[in-house]
Amino acid sequence: MVAGCVAVGGASAAGVHLVELRTHLCVSLGMRLWLSLVVPVLCVAATCESPFTATVTPGSRLRLDIRPGNIEIRGAEGDGLRVTCAFKDGTPPGAISVSFQNGELKVSGGPTGGNSSATIRIDVPRQSHLYVRSSAGNLSIRDVTGDKDVELRAGNIDIYGARTEYRSADLSATAGNVEAPSLGIQRSGLFRSQKKMGLPGQYHLKAHVTAGNVTVH
Fold first, then answer.
1. Rounded-to-integer distance, Cα 93 and Cα 86, Å
2. What dihedral angle (degrees, nearest 10) is formed by the CA atoms of 94, 99, 105, 111?
3. What pTM does this model have?
């Protein structure tokens, strides 16, 4: 379990729920004043043995720190955050740890070599601002409206969305291709970088891969 986190339902938590701790303070200033404080649990953790769920307000800024694998981030209706995992070689999903604290989701653990590639599916509210980091794999984002800041060391980044979503785009690949036909961007080779400003939308898009491809569909 992650230090400082509350384990929910042991290793097979079906969901994550905020716990309210109510503290009543009595202050005497010629009169009695009662204050009620509602304090959320700072961190909740479980594994991917069962779907990991939490409540997230649509429009929130979410930081996602994800272990290597095939990472699929999807926008969904409602206020739910949901994580599911599967290994290609049959490794139990319980080998992957998941924690959520102060808007930051961490998915870690499990084997990373050989044929043990993991598929990690993350559902977020359709209206979300994303900050995503991972070391390796293929990362795709669909049906999510909002700012996006995405970095991957090795692999491919695919972002799906309408051109009209973005006010600016900053796309780069140290070694690889950068393609965003709807934004008028197409570069290949070494140290490829392209910025577009003054686009018709309201959100900012930034995506970088060290070795691989960045594609905005």
1. 6
2. -30
3. 0.81
- For residue 211, the number of C-alpha atoms closer than 13 Å in the C-beta half-sphere is 4
Q: Are 71 and 133 within 8 A, CB to CB?
A: no
b/e burial code for range 155-186 (CB count within 10 A of at least 16 → b): bbbbbebebebbebbebbbeebbbbbeebebe
Tens of pLDDT, residue by residue over 126-153, are 999 999 999 999 999 999 999 999 999 9
Report the number of secondary-structure helices (H) and strands (E) in the chain.
Answer: 0, 16
| Residues 152, 209 contacting (CB under 8 angstroms) | yes
Tens of pLDDT, residues 2-22:
556 766 544 333 333 333 322
What are the structure tokens assigned to 166, written together?
Answer: 């973005």
Question: Is the pLDDT assigned to residue 67 strictly greater than 70?
Answer: yes
Burial bucket for residue 4 (CB in 10 Å: 0-12, 13-18, 19+) = exposed
Q: How far apart are CA 216 and CA 152, in angstroms?
A: 15
Domain extent listing, the chain: 47-216
